[in-house]
Design brief:
- The chain is flat, with a radius of gyration of 46 Å.
- It starts with a helix and ends in a 76-residue tail after the last helix.
- A hairpin with an 8-residue loop joins strand 1 (55-56) and strand 2.
- Helix content is 59%, strand content 1%.
- It is an all-alpha fold.
- Among the domains are: 1-186, no CATH class; 662-983 and 994-1003, no CATH class; 1262-1451.
- Helix 3 (28-43) packs across helix 4 and helix 23 runs parallel beside helix 25 (452-465).
- This is Fanconi anemia group D2 protein.
């Protein structure tokens, strides 16, 4: 301690020579001792020699002086020592003098510090301004170097634990620095050994200094040895990780040693301190080569656990709550900041590596790509993708974007990983915000719907996690998306903005002015999007917290300007905007003092009612505008919780106006002038007609026709003269119904008379005479039917949820009315070409009806249209309940009479499919599907069991079941099936697929799926009923569907219902949301319903068990499918259910067996004919692909069809089918051929490539597989000789080239190294393949002769592949030292029949056959080359003495 104290005092006095004497006087005792030592030093050999060489030793804190240049000093001293008579003993004396001189710490310090030039002699010009220290100059003298180094190493332990002095001088570090950059080291190996010995005993600080200095001390020859020692040290002591890696970075190492070191470093990665991690990662990434980049990066990615570097959000929250307790705040903040800084440095290391090394960036992409499960993906994956995207290299940017999309599409990168990354690493990710924003934009603009939600999550999390600048950029980018006009992009961006307003209203209020800018681009938005936009803006401007009050005036101006427009499009925007503003202003809120029974202030209530009055007055000028206003207001009442006073105000005015406008009291007579005789129709009430009410539809439509073309505003201003349009009937009733539901908590008792009340229409006998009517009369009749059907649809919407049995019966009856009226409408439309129906959905793009010609709505196709639209069944006969029959009115009895007539005339009555007219029907709510729970009772059971027990229940008839299932399937297809978001074409089409789904769009796909799950037991019951029906029907008719006595009408309806039920289940299970973790419970519940039909105890079963039982349940229906299309639906459903499990292979065989059974079954129509046509072929192709994709052995399956089924077809009669495969006939041959060629080409691409390391068994197995594939290919190519039509040739040319390319890429490498061991197998394979390639060559010639561009488009690429095949075989022979076996001959151009094409002349002889000069090695091949300059180039075959190849001319 005394010595330490003395040295510290010396350190304090370490100053220039003019140091004050007062400081020296404090250490008088020390000064006398120093002077005595200095005198001794001067008298010693050491002092004398130094003085003579030009160095003056100074005492105390004064630096030693040098009078000459250091090189001169070293030369003089060396000469002086060598010339001494006592040499070499004088050297030891000199070192002894040195040791005694540096005994004093102050002198030792002076010797370590640089010498200063001596200025007193006046020759300072010869001395450099900077000189080395005395000890370093002595180290530069070779004869002294080893001894001085030993002296220094002996001196160093004295200062080992002292640390830095008060002046910041660290003696151990300065000693080590003396050894750096010496011109020459006498014994580098010994020095390295001493240094490592010192490292083993020194403190950590000195160890770090020494290790870091090693590359600057040692010569290159010692780098390898020292690296191995450091490598061993690294594994023992992780505290030295950073200095050792710093040293490694500067050492000159061989690639092998560097790889060895890297492996050791990688092994210690998990034990490295967090602050050392950046250095470790940087070293690893900068030490990789192109050959091992992927392996190293994969290992690094696996061991780099950034999740452990940052506290979980829960702990962060708990620590933040503790910040008020003492010093915890600073401690937590520093710890959190330190961890974030370390992660940032790690990412910077990765960034520098990928920026300057292309192989590293590609390795990272490949490593992330190789991860195949969502659970294996880590935070580092996302961060690296952001880093790669942020680099300037285009390949990294594009690669990162591609990999991210692929991973998101596969469901491997999910929202949970994004949330974890943003929550834990927001500070780090802030630096990569531009890349995050660019990736989010790209994902949101993607046409693939699977990746769009992740882009939305990135936007939302960026807004939540980052600062105000980033928030502004996020909002600006989302606004850009909205203004782009691309449908899917706009929807998602608006949804995100609405979500941000809900989650972060105060932050979003700052950027309200940006969002308001979208109002300038409303021309590109659909009505649904405009509704979302105004919902968003009105929430900001008029929300309860009033953050965006600065845009309120702008909102009022825009709304009033649009409302006053005479252009329908802009008026529609104004109505939508005004209603949404009312929703925000009039929303229920906490009680205020100046409200009158509600929750709104008086002034706000006045503004709301005034705005509603304004909208109403502005919309009265157009019936479409008025109907839109009613629909929008109804939607507002349904979705928003309005203030009670506002709700009451709306309800009161609606009820009064509806009664006045549309309802009349029934009197004894119906007065008025109408185009057709008036008649009360469809009355379901028991009371007398005179005491009831009716909907005055005929009067409204007649008045509307009379005033057609007049301006509405000129018809009158007061209420008594107000004109009412029938267009408003259904929308107004919907608004009335929803107001009543809100005010009476779902009870519709006040308006229940409207469910059963009659309509004033005309007798529907007039439909029978529609062809004799004038065109205006037919159009009037069509309008009447459309309005009646839409009224009934809204009535069903209103009362479908009522529990009263009588109301349920009336609802079912109204459904029967709808199905009956639709059959009338089909016939009337067929007689009225060019008719434009009245609008029913008013929020579409167009506000005018579009004329639909009869050709555009022509005959029904396929499963959608063939599901019971052409219904001729009466309203009552389609029901299965006899109690309803007893309650029929006279009108209904008349209706039944009409239906009986229709049965007779059914075959002669043409009808138009209503598929094209769907946008002109009112939308059915999801709640209507609950009517399905009424069940199904088929007509045959009704005829045999018509007694009182059955009358107590309300049952659906087959026609109504099909009607509801059709609607349900369309809804699921719209909501659950993700359609690609495509950009709007230049010429925008007139049809909008979203028309008729306005209410559905307000529900999330999860809500729709949950609704399906609730209905699933009912759907299963209907499915079982259909199954039972066909199960009893087939044995009765000996399995023939066209047996006598079969009710064809019932059979068609139940077949349609069967198919629709399977399609509904398939669409439900195909929902992509089921693959997301948050919906796993819903999937389990869905499977539980199916499994529960087979086995009890659903909740206790595991997911795999549920899938197993569900699969078995659905498999039971295979025996009763009545048509091929239904068989396909069942196969697709089974495949989809199996995909939901983790063990798909378990069900593949069963699915394949079922599909094969369907393919081997003969299918016929109800008339007994064989199924045929384009739709049948398309269904067959899909079913065949399911079979071939699920079968275990694809090659065997192809050979079975091509080798057995097709020969049977060739040997059968002209119109017959294959005996084994009844679905295979001459009309469906192309379907089978295309399916087999496609799956064969896919199968060979999946054959693993051969490797030299493969065992003999593995190689033999691969050769066998290729032999089977080539044999199948040969069979299929040869079929072109029989089926030589153009489509078959096109398929063969296309897939033939693909097969050949796969063979060149995967098959030929296998033949290269298996030729010697398996030469017979190789020869057989090539011999068979040669026959196929020769046939392909003939097909190329045939295509040229025919000059068919469809075929000749394939020829150049195919010829190129054939030529490559020739030279590839030659290369294989050369590789195996058999090049002499390669012979070249001429191949003549021939057509499919083998006849020579005479337009070209052969050179040389006909095709040659040549023997191989190698008696023990046999091979053969062919050469196909393209024609050039009119010359024929041809074929080469090499073969053994005993082998023959059939000449082409013999084909």
């Amino acid at each position: 301690m005394m010595r330490k104290k003395r040295r510290s005092s010396v350190d304090k006095s370490a100053a220039p020579p003019d140091v004050s004497k007062s400081k020296k006087s404090r250490t008088t005792g020390h000064q006398s001792k120093t002077t005595a030592q200095e005198d001794t030093s001067i008298d010693s050999v050491f002092g004398q020699f130094l003085h003579e060489a030009g160095v003056v030793l100074r005492q105390g804190s004064t630096s030693n002086e040098i009078a000459v240049d250091q090189v001169v000093f070293q030369k003089r001293l060396q000469q002086r020592l060598k010339k001494s008579p006592r040499y070499p003993g004088i050297v030891q004396e000199f070192i002894t003098g040195l040791e005694s001189h540096i005994e004093d710490p102050e002198r030792f310090r002076n010797c370590l510090l640089p010498c200063v030039p001596r200025l007193a002699d006046g020759d300072s010009s010869s001395v450099s301004s900077f000189q080395e220290s005395l000890l370093r100059m002595l180290l530069g003298i070779e004869m002294l170097q080893v001894l001085v180094i030993n002296t220094l190493f002996e001196k160093l332990p004295e200062f080992m634990f002292d640390g830095a002095g008060e002046d910041g001088l660290n003696i151990p570090r300065v000693i080590v620095n003396q050894l750096k950059w010496l011109d020459r080291i006498i014994d580098s190996k010994e020095l390295a050994g001493k240094l490592m010995q010192l490292v083993s005993v020194a403190s950590v600080e000195i160890q770090r200094d020494i290790i870091t200095s090693l590359p600057e001390i040692l010569e290159d020859s010692q780098h390898s040895d020292i690296a191995r020692e450091l490598n061993s040290l690294l594994q023992e002591n992780t505290q030295l990780t950073v200095p050792i890696l710093d040293a490694f970075s500067s050492l000159n190492l061989s690639s092998t040693l560097l790889a060895e070191v890297r492996v050791s470093v990688m092994a210690t990665l998990s034990a490295v301190h967090l602050e050392d991690l950046p250095v470790v990662v940087k070293f690893i990434l900068h030490s990789i080569s192109s050959s091992d980049a992927l392996e190293v990066v994969c290992d690094l990615r696996k061991k780099l656990e950034l999740e452990l570097c940052v506290l979980p959000p829960v702990l962060q929250a708990s620590q933040s709550r503790m910040k008020n307790k003492g010093t915890t705040e600073s401690c937590n903040t520093s710890a959190s900041s330190s961890s974030q800084d370390s992660v940032a440095l790690v990412l910077d290391g990765i960034k520098s590596a990928v920026r300057f090394q292309k192989t590293t960036s590609e390795a990272w992409l490949k490593a992330i790509e190789n991860v195949d499960t969502a659970e294996d993906h880590k935070v580092i994956d996302l961060l690296v993708l952001f880093i790669l995207h942020s680099t300037n290299a285009n390949h990294s940017r594009r690669g990162a974007e591609r990999v991210l999309k692929v991973k998101v599409r596969a469901g491997q990168i999910q929202e949970a990983l994004l949330q974890k990354t943003f929550r834990g690493y927001a500070q780090v990710m802030r630096g990569y915000f531009p890349s995050i924003l660019a990736l989010a934009q790209s994902l949101l603009r993607s046409p693939d719907p699977c990746v769009v939600p992740i882009g939305g999550h990135m936007y939302r999390l960026s807004f939540t996690a980052f600062d105000s600048y980033c928030q502004q950029e996020v909002v600006g980018s989302l606004v850009t998306h909205v203004c782009s006009g691309v449908g899917g992009e706009v929807d998602v961006a608006l949804e995100l903005l609405c979500g941000l307003v809900t989650e972060k209203p105060s932050e979003m209020a700052l950027y309200a002015i940006f969002v308001k800018g979208i109002l300038d681009y409303m021309d590109n938005l659909t009505p649904q999007q405009i509704r979302r936009l105004f919902h968003l803006l009105s929430g900001l401007a008029f929300g309860q917290q009033q953050q965006g009050t600065h845009i309120q005036d702008d909102m009022h101006i825009v709304v009033r300007k649009q409302l006053s427009s005479t252009v329908p499009k802009y008026k529609r925007i104004g109505i939508i905007g005004a209603v949404m503003v009312v929703g925000s202003m009039g929303a229920c809120r906490p009680k205020v003092e100046d409200s009158q029974g509600g929750t709104l202030p008086k002034e706000t209530f006045r503004q709301v009612t005034a705005l509603l009055e304004l909208v109403r007055s502005c919309s009265e000028s157009s019936p479409e505008a008025a109907a839109l206003y009613y629909d929008q207001l109804a939607n507002l009442v349904l979705t928003c919780t309005l203030d009670p006073l506002v709700q009451a105000w709306i309800g009161k005015s609606v009820l009064e106006d509806f009664q006045e406008d549309f309802v009349v009291d029934l009197g004894p007579d119906i007065t008025g002038s109408f185009p057709f005789p008036a008649c009360l129709m469809y009355n379901l009430d028991d009371e007398e007609s005179q005491g009831g009410i009716a909907i005055n539809l005929l009067q409204l439509l007649s008045d509307d026709l009379q005033h057609k073309g007049e301006l509405w505003s000129k018809t009158g201003n007061n209420k008594t003269q107000r004109r009412v349009s029938p267009l408003c009937l259904s929308p107004f009733f919907r608004l009335l119904r929803l107001c009543e539901e809100q005010q009476h908590q779902g009870d519709l008792e006040e308006i229940d008379a409207l469910l059963g009340c009659p309509l004033i229409l005309t007798d529907m006998d007039v439909v029978e005479k529609s062809e004799s009517l004038s065109k205006p009369e037919r159009e009037f009749l069509c309008c009447l039917l459309f309005h009646t059907i839409n009224w009934f649809r809204e009535v069903v919407n209103a009362f479908c949820s009522q529990k009263d049995p009588e109301m349920k019966m009336k609802v079912v009856t109204r459904l029967q009315n709808i199905t009956y009226l639709q059959t009338l409408l089909e016939r009337t439309l067929a007689a009225t070409p060019g008719y434009a129906p009245p609008l029913a959905n008013f929020d579409g793009e167009s506000t005018e009806g579009v004329p639909l010609s009869s050709s555009s709505a022509a005959p029904k196709k396929g499963k959608k249209e063939g599901t019971g639209k052409k219904r001729k069944a009466p309203a009552k006969n389609s029901s299965a309940d006899s109690s309803q029959l007893e309650e029929g009115t006279e009108a209904e009895e008349t209706q039944q009479d009409h239906a009986e007539k229709e049965k007779v005339q059914e075959a002669t009555r043409p009808g138009v499919s209503l598929v094209s007219y769907r946008p002109f029907f009112r939308e059915l709510d999801m709640e209507v599907l609950s009517v399905l729970q009424c069940g199904l009772l088929s007509r045959s059971l009704l005829d045999s069991e018509l007694h009182s027990k059955v009358r107590e229940e309300v049952q659906l008839g087959p026609a109504e079941l099909v009607f509801l299932l059709e609607d349900m399937w369309r809804k699921l297809e719209f909501s659950l099936t993700a359609a690609p978001a495509k950009r709007v074409p230049f010429f925008k089409g007139k049809t909008d697929k979203s028309v008729g789904f306005s209410h559905l769009q307000q529900k999330s796909p999860k809500d729709i799926a949950a609704c399906c799950v609730q209905l699933l037991p009912t759907l299963c019951t209907h499915l079982e009923n259909c199954h039972n029906h066909f199960q009893t029907l087939l044995p009765e008719n000996q399995g023939v569907v066209d047996a006598s006595g079969l009710d064809v009408r019932e059979h068609q309806l139940l077949s349609s219902a069967y198919q629709l039920l399977l399609q509904v289940l398939h669409t439900t299970f195909s929902w992509s949301g089921f693959s997301q973790p948050e919906h796993r419970g819903l999937l389990k519940k869905t499977l539980g319903v199916l499994a529960g039909r087979l086995k009890e105890g659903g909740p206790e079963l595991t997911m795999d068990q549920l899938i197993k039982h569900s699969f078995e349940y659905l498999l039971n229906f295979h025996s009763t499918v009545p048509s091929l299309s239904i068989a396909l639906c069942l196969s697709q459903l089974l495949s989809t259910v199996a995909d939901r499990g983790g063990h798909q292979a378990t069900y593949r065989e069963q699915t394949a067996t079922l599909a094969r059974r369907f393919l081997c079954q003969e299918w016929g129509t109800t008339s007994g004919d064989r199924e045929k046509g384009p739709k049948h072929n398309e269904t067959l192709q899909t079913l065949l692909s399911i079979y071939l994709e699920h079968t275990d052995d694809v090659l065997k399956a192809v050979e079975e069809i091509a080798g057995e089924g097709i020969p049977e077809l060739l040997n059968s009669a002209k119109g017959a089918s294959s005996r084994t495969w009844p679905t295979l006939n001459r009309l469906t041959f192309l379907v089978f051929y295309k399916g087999m060629m496609g799956v064969l080409e896919k199968a060979v691409r999946k054959i693993p490539p051969g490797r030299n390391s493969d065992s003999t068994e593995v190689t033999s197995e691969k050769l066998l597989t290729w032999n089977l594939a080539v044999r199948d290919f040969h069979i299929l190519v040869n079929l072109v000789k029989v089926f030589d039509n153009r489509p078959v040739l096109n398929v063969c040319l296309k897939y033939g080239r693909l097969f050949l390319e796969s063979f060149l890429k995967l098959g030929m490498p296998l033949l290269d190294f298996s030729f010697k061991k398996h030469k017979e197998d190789v020869q057989s394979l090539l011999k068979t393949f040669q026959l196929s390639t020769r046939q392909l060559h003939h097909m190329c010639g045939h295509s040229k002769i025919r000059q068919d561009t469809t075929l000749t488009n394939h020829v150049p690429a195919l010829k190129k592949s054939l030529e490559q095949f020739v030279y590839r075989v030659k290369a294989m022979l050369t590789l195996n030292h058999c090049q002499e076996a390669f012979w070249l001959g001429n191949l003549k151009n021939r057509d499919l029949k083998g006849e020579e094409i005479l337009t070209q002349h052969s050179q040389g002889s006909d095709e040659e056959e040549a023997g191989s000069p190698l008696p023990q090695e046999q091979s053969e091949d062919e050469a196909h080359e393209s024609d050039s300059d009119g010359k024929k180039k041809g074929n080469r075959k090499a073969e053994g003495d005993d082998d023959e190849i059939t000449d082409d001319s013999d084909d």
